[in-house]
Backbone:
DNA sequence: GGCATTACTCGCACACTGTTCGAGGTGACT
DNA sequence: AGTCACCTCGAACAGTGTGCGAGTAATGCC
């Protein structure tokens, strides 16, 4: 049970570069492409090396290991969520929430990494900083700034992760939503026999003809504004 | 790019059993032990087989593959969150939130799986059913029942996952919190040079002498009640 | 110019992983 | 006694991340 001291890409000095052959940025870019194209499982050092016309082990000069590579490429995901610098706290929170949601949708493989992999990269940090600034300006006091901001981030992650994960499963099966639903139907029905509340909801869905994908999006909005309302009352 | 139709343990008929030698429940129990003791990476079919005094490939008679095994063992995590059957919606929501949080703390490896792996097992379903019942009885109308409940689940997951993930990293390094903080300090400071809001917060933390672990727990409470408040105003 | 040093590339090898296949065994029922 | 379903498992395959050490190429220095 040997333990290694904490280490993250962001805690190590970057090696001086001679600007030739492989570079860290190039590797991260290629990894991002590979991930977007084929998903998390498809990312292997050998495949990534091949895509760059290099040997797999060459990558290890530029990146300590695969985990660090993933930290780097995750920060690229955060790069897409850009926040205004001097906006209303509610507006900033909304931009963050929808920006984050959108970013994860664009990079579905990140759903299983986000919140789990340390987010200490520059892009993650500036997003945090902007968000925190908005809450501080809003008038939250002391540590409440932290709490309020954390709440928004938590909600956003918790809503986005399962949503994207579901879509990923859906896509991996290659079935349409209707296909999947009818495939699962009998088992669901059986399981719901002694779960009256779920059953009722399920029937409502069917009768109201709600598109589950749209419903998820509305659910996101619903919860977000509820949370922001709740936070707003804590401002005085 | 071949695609396989959707399949989950819960969608397949269970094999009849002759109640001898290995059994699915036994396997799941052993997997849970192994996961709790050594973490997600330590779970391999061979190790699990060995722990049961069986060959690795014997497991494949009882379980289709590792993913299904993980679905099964995840449902055991949900087993720990038991909800009252006829309580106030706020109370039920709180029991769920803290119950879920506690369950994931007890099984830290689940942090990187929850929300990503389909939760169609009996325990997950009954928890959902109870939670949904509480929101329906509370007076939420139509699809708002779903939305309100989803919001609570989202917040809970999004708050818990990073918290547990952080503790896992901490434990894996074997360093104390103070060690880690002082190790990261210089890099953090440098990174925060042009992130004034983060820096200010960081300094407040230090001066107020807040224990970050306690703070996280208070943050969970803060966000949860804010969300419930916000949901409450939508009841009329 | 020559030479030493640094910066990088990469093949080999190791210890693993999940999973398939097919050969075997074992008990219950006819 | 024979059949059949249930169950176990060793061998093998195609992968995985990564440490090591040898090899190459460009730079800095005299």
Residues:
């Amino acid at each position: 049970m040997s333990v290694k001291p904490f280490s993250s890409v962001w805690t190590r000095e970057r090696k001086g570069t001679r600007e030739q052959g492989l570079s860290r940025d190039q590797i991260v870019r290629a990894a991002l492409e590979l991930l977007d194209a084929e998903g998390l499982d498809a990312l292997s050092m050998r495949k990534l090396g091949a895509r760059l016309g290099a040997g797999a082990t060459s990558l290890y000069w530029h990146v300590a290991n695969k985990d660090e590579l993933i930290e780097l490429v995750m920060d690229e995901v955060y790069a897409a969520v850009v926040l205004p610098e001097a906006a209303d706290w509610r507006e900033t929170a909304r931009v963050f929430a929808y920006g984050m949601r959108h970013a994860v949708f664009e990079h579905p493989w990140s759903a299983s990494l986000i919140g789990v992999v340390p987010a200490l990269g520059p892009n993650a940090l500036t997003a945090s900083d902007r968000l925190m600034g908005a809450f501080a300006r809003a008038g939250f006091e002391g540590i409440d700034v932290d709490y309020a901001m954390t709440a928004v981030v938590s909600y956003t992650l918790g809503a986005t992760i399962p949503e994207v994960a579901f879509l990923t499963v859906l896509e991996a099966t290659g079935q349409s939503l209707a296909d999947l639903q009818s495939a699962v139907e009998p088992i669901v029905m059986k399981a719901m026999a002694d779960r009256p509340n779920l059953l009722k909801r399920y029937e409502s869905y069917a009768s109201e003809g709600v598109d589950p994908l749209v419903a998820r999006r509305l659910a996101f909005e619903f919860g977000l504004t509820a949370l922001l309302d709740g936070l707003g009352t804590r401002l005085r």
